[in-house]
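Worked example 4.2. Below are the chains of a multi-component assembly; read each line carefully before continuing.
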Amino acid sequence: MSVTVAVAGASGYAGGEILRILLGHPEYRNGGLRIGALTGASTAGSTVGELMPHLPELADRVIAPTTADELAGHDVVFLGLPHGHSAAIADQLGPDVVVIDCAADFRLDDAGDWERWYGSKHAGTWPYGIPEMPGNRELLRGTKRVAVPGCFPTGATLALLPAVAAGLIIPDVAIVSVTGVSGGGKKASVGLLGSETMGSLKAYNTAGRHRHTPEIARNLRLHSQSPVTVSFTPVLAPLPRGILTTASAPLAEGGTAADARAAYRDAYADEPFVQLLPEGTQPQTQNVLGSNMCQVQVEVDDDAGRLLVTSAIDNLTKGTAGAAVQCMNLALGLDETAGLSRCGVAP
Amino acid sequence: MSVTVAVAGASGYAGGEILRILLGHPEYRNGGLRIGALTGASTAGSTVGELMPHLPELADRVIAPTTADELAGHDVVFLGLPHGHSAAIADQLGPDVVVIDCAADFRLDDAGDWERWYGSKHAGTWPYGIPEMPGNRELLRGTKRVAVPGCFPTGATLALLPAVAAGLIIPDVAIVSVTGVSGGGKKASVGLLGSETMGSLKAYNTAGRHRHTPEIARNLRLHSQSPVTVSFTPVLAPLPRGILTTASAPLAEGGTAADARAAYRDAYADEPFVQLLPEGTQPQTQNVLGSNMCQVQVEVDDDAGRLLVTSAIDNLTKGTAGAAVQCMNLALGLDETAGLSRCGVAP
Amino acid sequence: MSVTVAVAGASGYAGGEILRILLGHPEYRNGGLRIGALTGASTAGSTVGELMPHLPELADRVIAPTTADELAGHDVVFLGLPHGHSAAIADQLGPDVVVIDCAADFRLDDAGDWERWYGSKHAGTWPYGIPEMPGNRELLRGTKRVAVPGCFPTGATLALLPAVAAGLIIPDVAIVSVTGVSGGGKKASVGLLGSETMGSLKAYNTAGRHRHTPEIARNLRLHSQSPVTVSFTPVLAPLPRGILTTASAPLAEGGTAADARAAYRDAYADEPFVQLLPEGTQPQTQNVLGSNMCQVQVEVDDDAGRLLVTSAIDNLTKGTAGAAVQCMNLALGLDETAGLSRCGVAP
Amino acid sequence: MSVTVAVAGASGYAGGEILRILLGHPEYRNGGLRIGALTGASTAGSTVGELMPHLPELADRVIAPTTADELAGHDVVFLGLPHGHSAAIADQLGPDVVVIDCAADFRLDDAGDWERWYGSKHAGTWPYGIPEMPGNRELLRGTKRVAVPGCFPTGATLALLPAVAAGLIIPDVAIVSVTGVSGGGKKASVGLLGSETMGSLKAYNTAGRHRHTPEIARNLRLHSQSPVTVSFTPVLAPLPRGILTTASAPLAEGGTAADARAAYRDAYADEPFVQLLPEGTQPQTQNVLGSNMCQVQVEVDDDAGRLLVTSAIDNLTKGTAGAAVQCMNLALGLDETAGLSRCGVAP
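Applying the procedure described above to all four chains together yields the following C-alpha cells:
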C-alpha cells in the first residue's frame, strides 16, 4: 500500500487524536501510509512540537494554512474544521480523494433540519461513519466520502439502536449524556477553564438546544417503525475525555429483559468495537479511554416500565478520531480494526 | 439559649459536615450551643485531629463508642449511623431529646416499601426534613424527631415537586443524577479508590435498584394528583461533592414554559435555600459547594414534548448535614437559616 | 460599627472570594458592615448573578466600571486589579480610606527588585498582610494601607520563617509549591482550559522566573541572620484551589528535630490561623479548603542533612481574600478572626 | 518467534498495564507472542472481564493462583508481586526463563540498604531496567533477569543522571515528585479513596521515609564522582496517572546553562523514549499518558545558583509496565521499541 494522508485542522483535539492513532497504525509503521500536510487556521506557522508535545514523532512538522492547495495531492484528507467549511474544501479536492469530514456538514439528510440547526445551506449527505448501524458498513467500504458522526450521537445511537430497531421500546427517549471537557474543543473560553469545570457539574444546551439532537433522532428514525422523539441533555463533568450516556424509554407491550439482552447480543455479537457487557456490569469511561470501544449495558426497570441503556465511549476516539480512522480503513479496503485499540488506558 | 448537641457517627462524612456547620453556627460562636459527645464505631478512641484534620477547633476531642449512655444528657442528638440502627438508639434517648436521623430509617411511610428496600422491620415515620415541601416546615417547627432526607431525593424532589404539584407533567419521570464520590461514604473500597473514580464516569444501582428510588417516588406521590412512576439513574463522576440532577417528564396537555416558570417562582419565591435561576442559566454544583442552597432551572423542550428540570446541591450540605442543621434550627425555634451559608465555595 | 466596603475587580476570583467571606462576616450579618460599590473592567454592566452565581445574596448587584469616582465614599476599598494599577487608584481615595491591595504593587521594599520583576516604577511599600510575621500585626492594627501577600509567598513564608528566624537552616532553600488552577485567574486561555489541566501536572515559570520569588526572598531576609537564596518552582495540578508547599534547606550545624519542632511551636502557638500539625501528620489542602488556615509540618531528614517543611493553604482564602479580610479586621480594630473559618470544606 | 508470557499479579495496576501493552505488541498481533497464565492472590478464580473490563480481548481468562506450577512452562514471566516475594518464585522458574520483576527485590545492590528499608534478607541484584543508564542496555540484551525500576526512581534518575555524570552539579539534590494516585495500587484504603484524594494535595513518606530514596541515591552514585545525598519528597495529586519530578542541586563551579543543555542533548540524542524538550517548554504528564516516554527539561537558576531539572512520565507505563516490556524486548532480542507508544493520550 502507498497512501498519503493530510489532516486539516490538525492542531485541534480531533486532529491531534487522528494523528496519534495514525502514528500507531500498522500501515504507518510499515511505511505504506505517509502523513503529509497538516494544516490549521490560527496555528499555521507553528510546529507540532509547540502545539502538541504529546506527538514527539512529528515534533518538527510545521502547520500549514488550510487551503485546497496544501491539501491537494493526498489520497486521504481528514477535515477537522468548524461546521460549514467542509464542502468548499471537499469540492476542490476532487472525487478520487477519500475525504473524511469530522464536522457536521454532511451528517444530516434533511436539508430543513440542517438549516434550522446550523443556519446555513445544506451541503449534502455523505455515508455516515457509524459502521455498526445496519447497512452503513457496506456504504463505507470503498467510499470516497465519510461524514464522521458527532460524539454524543455515537454514544446514544449505539446505546439505543438495537432497542429501537427491534421495537422493544416506544421510542420517546430521554437521553442524558455526561461528557468530559475535551468535547468543548481547544479554544480559550472562560466557561471551559479548569477553575470553572473541575469539581463541578452542569447541564448545557438543554431542552433540545444541542445540535446533536437532530442527528440522534435521524439515526434512530432510520431504523424505527414508530415515530421517534428525543429529549437530549448533555452534562459537563470534570474529566478530560469520555462520554457516559444513559437513555431510557417506555418498554413496548410485552417486552422483557431477556428480549432486550438478546436483541443487543445479536446486534453486536460480531462487532469489534461494541461490547455488550455481562449482566451486572456497568460501562465505565475509564475502560475505553483512548480506545475505539463502545461498552453497552441494557436493562429493564420493571417498576418504571422502562428500558434503560447505558454506553461509554471516549469522545475523541470512538466519538471522533477513532471512528474516522475506522472509516478510513473501510474506505481503503484495509482491516477495519487496523491501528485501533480495543483496550482502554485504565486506571 | 443553652443547648448541648451530640453527634453519633461523628467521624463519617455526614458527621464531619454537621460539625463543620455547627462550628460556624452563631449559637455556637456565642456560647448558647455546646458540642458534646462525639461517637463512632471503629473510630472510637481516636481523636478528631487524627480523623478530621479539617476541624482544628475540635482536634483534641476523643471519639467515644456509640452507646445510648454516651449520647444521653444532650438536648439534640444527630444520628449518622448505618441504616437500621437509629430506632434502637432513639428509643433510649427519650421523647424530649431532639433526634435528627441522617439514615433512611424513618423516611418512608409505607412499611412494605421499607421492608422491600431495606430488608428489615419498618421503624416508623418521622417528620421529613425537606422544609420546602408543602406542609413540612410546620411539622418540623418544634419537633423532637426528624428524618433527614437522602441526598438524591433532596435534589430530585426540589427539582420536580412544583411541576408535579401543579399538574404540569404526566408524572412518569426519568431522573438522572450525577454525583460526586463522597456520597459513597468514608469506608475503604476498591470501587471508590481515586484511581477507579478520577477520570471516569459510570452509572450504578441502575434500573430501579437504588434505595433512594422509593423515597423520591413517595415525595412526589404525596403531592401528585396522578399516579407517579420514577426511573432513577445515579451516575458517579470525578468530584468530591455535588449532585447535578436532570429530570424530565411528558408535559401535560396545555402546559407551557410560562406556566412552568410561574409554578416554580411561586413555589420558591420565599425559600431561603432554593433559588430558581434566571432563564438561560443552568445550575452548577460548584456554585453550591459547601452551601445549603439548591439551584433549580426549569424549561420546556417543545420538540420532545417534555418538561426538563435541573437542580444542583452539595450532597453533604443541603443533601445531608445542612438539611439536618436547618431542621435543628426549626426544631429549636431558631432562625431557620442560622449557621447555613447561601454562598458556594466557587471556583 | 458602620462601615462601607467597596471591591474593585470584584468579578475576578480574588474579588469573588472577598465577597463570599464578607457575606458571612458577623459585622455584615448584623448590619454594621455594608457592601457598596463592586467594580470591574470588562465585566462592568453585568450583574453578580450572571458572573458569580455562587453569591445569590448579591445577584442583582451591577458591576460598575473601576474608577476612583465609583470607589469614593467607602471606608474600606479592596483592590483586586492587575499589577501596576493600584497606586493611581489609591492616591485618589485619600489617606483616611482603608485600602487593601491584592496586587503586588506595594509588597516589595526594594525598588530595584520591583523594576526588575514587574518592569514599571516602584509605587512604594505598604504594611505587609501576613500578620503572623514578627512585627507585622502591630503595623496592621489601625493601618490605612495593606499590601496583601501573594499566594505562594504566604505558603512558603509561613512554612519557612520560624526555621530561618531561629537559624535552624542555612537559608539556601529549595521550594516546590503545587497549586490548583484558580491561581491562574479567570481569563480565557488555552493553557488553563480544563482539557489542558485535568489529569495533568506541569511546572511553570521555573528556574527563578516566577514573580513571587523575590517576595519570598524578601520575607525570609527580613528575619534571617544569613544570606538567603531561594529556588522556587511552582507546579500546576488538577484541582481548583489549594497550595501544597514543600521546602527544604541544609540543616544548620547542631540543629535537631526537637529544636525545629520547638521553634515552630513557639512561633505559632498563639496564632489562630496557623496550625503546626502533630508529628506524623502531613498538611493536606482539602483540610483548609475555603478556610483561612495554614497547616504546617516540620521534619528533619537525617540522611539528607536537611530540614523539610510543608504547608497547605487555600490560595484564594488564606492565600488572598482571607488574608485581605484578616487585615481589614486588624485595620478596623475588629476581632482578627471575625468572618474567617478555621474549618476546611473536606472532603 | 514463538514465545509464551505469564503475568503474576496480573490483576494489579502494573499487571493490567503490562497486559494492555502486550495486547498491542506487534509480536502478539502476529501470533509470535502468546499470553499464557495470569495469576493473582485474592483475585484468583475471577475473570479478567470482572477485574479489568478495559481489556476486553482477555475477558474470559480466569486468574489462577500465583504458584510456581501455574507460572512454569513460559518463556517470559512478569512478576507484579508485593515486595519480598519474587525470589522464591524466580528460583523455581529456572535459569532459562526470562523473569522480569516489577517489585523492589532485586533493585538495590547494597544488602544493608535493602535490609534497612525493606526489613528482610536481601535476595540479590539483577540487571536494572533503565536501559537509558550508561551500560545498562548492554546488560539487558539477552538477559534472563530484570529488576524493573521503581516509578519515582525512573523519573528522578532520567532527570538527574546526565547532570550528575557530567559533574554539572554538587550532587546534594532536592527532589519533589508529584504523583497520580495509581501509584498507591489497587487495594481498598481510606486514604486513597476518591473523596480523600480528589481536590486535594499532600506530601507523604516525607523526610527520607520513602523506599524509593535509596534506589534513587544508588542510581546517581553509580555515575557520580562526588558523594551523593538525596532529599526526596513525594506529593500525592488528584490525577490517575503521571509523575512530574522537579529536582534541583547547587550548580558546580563554572557550570553554565549551555553546558547543561549539551550534556542532556548528548545523553538522550539517540534514546527513543527520553526527549529533551526545546528551551522554554516544560514537561507535562498529559503528554506522556499511556506512553513509554519521559520528557525532560533542564535549566539554570542563576539567582539561586542551582540547576533545575524536570521530568514527566506515566508511572504505570515508563514508570513500570512500559519499562518492563522495553526490557522484555531487549531480553528477547526484539526491537527495543516494539509495542511501546511514544505518543501520549492527550488531552
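Take a moment to check your reading of the output against the notes. Residues 317-332 of chain C form the longest helix (16 residues). Chain C has a mean pLDDT of 97.
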